[in-house]
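In this supplementary section we document a worked example of the pipeline. Step one takes a protein sequence of length 241 as its only input; no multiple sequence alignment statistics are reported here. Step two produces a three-dimensional model, which step three serialises into structure tokens for compact storage. The input and output of this example are shown verbatim.
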Amino acid sequence: MESPLEQFVIKPIIPIHIGGVDISFSQSALWMGIAVVVATTLMTLGMRHRTIVPGRWQNIPEMLYEFIFGMVNENLGPEGKKYFPFVFSVFMTVLMGNLLGLIPYSFTFTSHIIVTGALALMVLLVVTGIGIACHGLHFFSLFLPKGLPLALAPLIITIEVVSYLSRPISLSVRLFANMVAGHTMLKVFASFSVMTGVMLGVFPMVVNTALYGLELMIAVIQAYVFTILTCLYLKEAIELH
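The serialised model returned by step three reads:
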């Protein structure tokens, strides 16, 4: 029986080696491209024929837009509208990666720490850049709470800096771990259904169906969690709280 972890192995589709460096086009890159195409098509076609009473296709992009806009407005206020495109892009990237990975024979690129880590690091760099752009060097006062005794400053600053720099780790590991755990369980129970035959395989099949529904919910929740934390980090950088 194939290992449940085999589904996470990156395999090259178009081998490319330049100067001894492997930059092959893999199934991970393919599904990232598919995610971009699906998200762009969904938003473009859904809003092509806008009507006062939205149809079925128009409802989807409108709900996504209103959901993220409400999140941004609630956390960042009216001034946060300028950051909406960034937050929306982060949400759609994670959501598409999670949902497309639930299609049979697809590939979940958000199940790789290198992908989620790069995305989380980008969030940290953008948030830090926005904070410095808004406050200049005063942004670094974020690591020194007001009223702190001078004797405790070295310790507290070290703790705050480490905590700040560890954000990409917590963001990326949370998403990566949930995707790997869920897909592994799905694979294991699906294998049980095949191994036990038609009659005895009914129970594993029922469990697998329930797990699929749970994984679908987790895919959406994890996209939400990643996005809401991005908003909170932005809020802290802008308001220095």
